[in-house]
Amino acid sequence: MNDSLQTAAQAPAQAQTQAGKIMLVGIGPGSVDHMTARARAAIAEADVVIGYVTYIKLVVDLLEGKEIIRKSMTEELDRAVSALEAARAGKKVALISSGDAGVYGMAGPTYEVLFQSGWTPDDPVQVEIVPGASALNSCAALVGAPLTHDFCAISLSDLLTPWPTIARRLDAVAMADFVVALYNPKSGRRTRQIVEAQRLFLRHRRADTPVAIVKSAYRRRENIVFTTLDSMADADIGMLSTVLIGNSNTFVRNGLMVTPRGYANKYDMEEGGTTREGEKAGRSLSTGLLGWLDTLQAEHAAGASVEALAQSHRLPADYIRATLAEPWQDEATDTVEGEA
User: Fold this and answer.
1) Among residues 184, 209, 203, which one has the least CA distance to residue 194?
2) If DSSP codes are grouped into helix, strand and coil, which group holds residue 192?
3) What is the pTM for the complete model shown?
4) Which residues are CB-contacts of 235 (< 8 A; sequence separation ≥ 6)?
5) Each residue of 274-287: b (16+ CB within 10 Å) or e?
6) Cα distances (Å, whole numbers) of residue 133 to 36, 137, 141, 238, 292
């Protein structure tokens, strides 16, 4: 723990004549046009604005008359400590993050510093998180609709996370067929991580799986590259890039990357969206949970072992065993829920 963090952690939570406030502000991709009204208002009402030097540059037009504290890339805890010190002095502080402050941003480190200092939600220093569009939202909007189905985000930065942990997560989501947004994919010193991620994904995904690489979304040097999984590590990727890897159904057409939601599983899109045979509007798919349970029970009754069923459906054997033992109710007796 550095000296400034230790000092803040040991400082008593003393009430001020005018209580200060910390506003954790997500500024989105960086352009003022893509900031929320609340984000702009939070910066406007702040006495002090704290942030990474690049983020400060992105909002410099909003900072006239403000006290500005610039920090480097690896000084996240120092930013949080400075925010707490200024708030204890009765000032309103805007601690800014690109994207959303709660997605690989300053919300987590700030709460860690706050809790270590003895802060509670009843403290005179109040905390507000102002959400913003994360990189995966911004990048997805530029390339089409790649996140229309289940997706997740994984950071390849091993500065604070052990590589085996990152690798296990990559392998798990690649096998589970998520669309994946890779944050912090590569830097001047970290060049092999993206190659290892590619290797893990190729264990489960086709080589021609669509990949979009977006650098500096909505900023002056914005650059978009469409490639495939087997070629993505050869692309120009840096710390300002976000890598979007499609799932098994994602496609690129007319320069747009799209992940189908799954309507074609239930509706015949070429016949005006009529419901396919064996399907019912407003009900789970015939291959949804209850249909799958029917299939599972039938396969087990026909002699398939739990282990064989686990291998066939690519699910844990203990889950299959517990599912077979669990009584279930027919969907016909349940209340019908409309589809979104």
Assistant:
1) 184
2) coil
3) 0.86
4) 213, 225, 227
5) eeeeebeeebbbbe
6) 9, 6, 11, 20, 37
Q: Are 86 and 23 in contact (CB under 8 A)?
A: no
Residue 80, H or E segment: helix 76-88
Three-state secondary structure string covering 111-153 = HHHHHHCCCCCCCCCEEEEECCCCHHHHHHHHHEECCCCCEEE
3-state helix vs strand vs coil in the chain, percent to 5 = 35, 20, 45
Q: In tens digits, what is the pLDDT along the chain, a chain of 340 residues?
A: 455 555 554 454 444 457 899 999 999 997 888 999 999 999 999 999 999 998 999 999 999 999 999 988 778 999 999 999 999 999 999 999 999 999 999 999 999 999 999 999 999 999 999 999 999 999 999 999 999 999 999 999 999 999 999 999 999 999 999 999 999 999 988 999 999 999 999 999 999 999 999 999 999 899 999 999 999 999 999 989 999 999 999 999 999 999 999 888 888 877 777 888 888 888 888 889 989 999 999 999 999 999 999 999 999 999 999 999 987 665 444 444 444 4
Task: Count the Cβ atoms, other than its own, within 10 Å of residue 223.
Answer: 13
- Residue type at 3 in one-letter notation: D
Closest CA to 68 of 37, 99, 46: 46
Contact between 142 and 224 (Cβ < 8 Å): yes
Amino acid at 243: V
